[in-house]
Design brief:
Layout: H1 7-34, H2 36-47, H3 55-85, H4 90-99, H5 104-114, H6 120-132, H7 137-149, H8 152-162, H9 164-187, H10 196-200, H11 217-252, H12 256-262, H13 269-277, H14 284-296, H15 301-313, H16 316-322, H17 328-352
Helix pairs in contact: 2-3, 3-6, 3-11, 5-7, 5-9, 6-7, 7-9, 7-15, 8-9, 8-14, 9-17, 11-16, 13-15, 13-17, 14-15, 15-17
């Protein structure tokens, strides 16, 4: 007669099943993510029969590619962050970050943002996860600002098109903007302008603190899935609306319409270029070739780089997605502070280069 399975054996078997389900999901996630562009091209140019050169085709291709891309990133990033939370006492982490002298956390967040290959909208999932985890708001903003401004691909493209000096100067300016803006926002005490649901999400129970027994992997994965779904169901519509606006602008706003303004030497060219860039949407890697084309047509270096910064760090689609987690007043303050920093940087570039 076989004896009943002990609790530890049951936990191991359940954990193995959880690991298997997680592994299968991860494989499917990677396969789906790596084939998004192929699917978007097939759906746009074969299934719908649109031309590669048509504005409608370009806009729809952008939309069909970016919606699943950002939803996959949103689910994947939030899941990983939430899973890690089950191992960490977030109160202790928050206390440790807050105990550092002013600016250390902002420097770390900006440096992390500089090495992550995310556009502004793709950075939002991590921003949400950081806020939910209790990381100080100013530090999360340092990441949110720096991540889209600079990544490895954009850095390499800048080197190839403009040389090491311009690339390093741009990297330094992106880090300075992210750190300084994060410090300013952090000192303003704006936590009350974060939507309550971000803080009210069911807290993740740490497996190493204040419990008699550690969590099993099945319990950790279940909590991560639950936390991920709770966030996604609150932001998915904003993601789709934001990408829809970005796709329309991506397909229908002509590049030549911007050259005349940016090519003028008037003092107002930098702030006007920043204002023009805010409604647009792209990542740093996608906008660098456009910047090169504008430079070839006579646009000033500081002006086009300020335009680039506003496109990648202050896009309307990003603001629409952020609206679900931040109140309008905080978004407005964020836009004003970051836009002022970008305008100053544009003027500085025009003076130096």
């Amino acid at each position: 007669m076989r004896l009943p399975l002990s609790i530890p054996t049951l936990a191991i078997r359940t954990d193995r099943q959880a690991f298997f389900a997680l592994a299968v999901t991860a494989v499917l996630w990677v396969i789906a993510y790596r084939n998004l562009q192929n699917f978007a091209d097939w759906a746009t140019y074969q299934l719908m029969g649109l031309s590669h050169d048509s504005r409608l085709g370009e806009a729809l291709n952008f939309f069909i590619y970016d919606v699943p891309k950002l939803m996959l990133l949103l689910a994947g990033m939030i899941f990983l962050i939430t899973l890690l939370q089950t191992f960490v006492d977030t109160n202790k982490v928050r206390q440790m970050v807050e105990s550092q002298r002013a600016g250390v956390g902002n420097v770390m967040a900006a440096a992390f943002g500089a090495i992550t290959p995310f556009c502004s909208c793709s950075s939002v999932p991590l921003f949400i996860g950081f806020v939910h985890a209790g990381i100080p708001l100013g530090i999360t903003f340092s990441f949110l600002i720096t991540s889209p401004l600079m990544n490895q691909v954009a850095f390499v493209l800048l080197i190839g098109l403009f040389g090491w000096q311009v690339a390093l100067l741009y990297l330094a300016s992106a880090l300075v903007i992210g750190i300084s803006a994060g410090l300013v926002l952090g000192r303003m005490g704006l936590e009350r302008y974060v939507e309550p649901f971000v803080y009210d999400i069911k807290p993740i129970r740490a497996g190493v603190a204040l419990v008699e027994e550690p969590l099993t992997w099945r319990e950790r994965i279940e909590q991560a899935v639950e936390g991920t779904w709770e966030i996604i169901r609150k932001v998915w519509l904003f993601v789709i609306i934001g990408i829809g606006i970005g796709a329309f602008i991506h397909g229908f706003v002509p590049e030549n319409a911007l050259t005349g303004i940016m090519g003028k030497g008037a003092w107002w060219s930098v702030p006007v270029s920043v204002l023009i860039g805010i409604p647009l949407y792209s990542n740093a890697a996608g906008i660098v070739p456009i910047i090169s084309a504008l430079m070839d047509k006579g646009a000033a270096m500081g002006t086009v780089l300020a335009f680039m910064m506003s496109v990648v760090a202050l896009s309307i689609p990003e603001m629409i997605i952020l609206r679900k987690v931040l109140k309008p007043r905080l978004i407005g303050i964020f836009i004003v502070i970051l836009a002022a920093a970008i305008v100053f940087t544009g003027f500085l570039f025009n003076l130096v280069i």
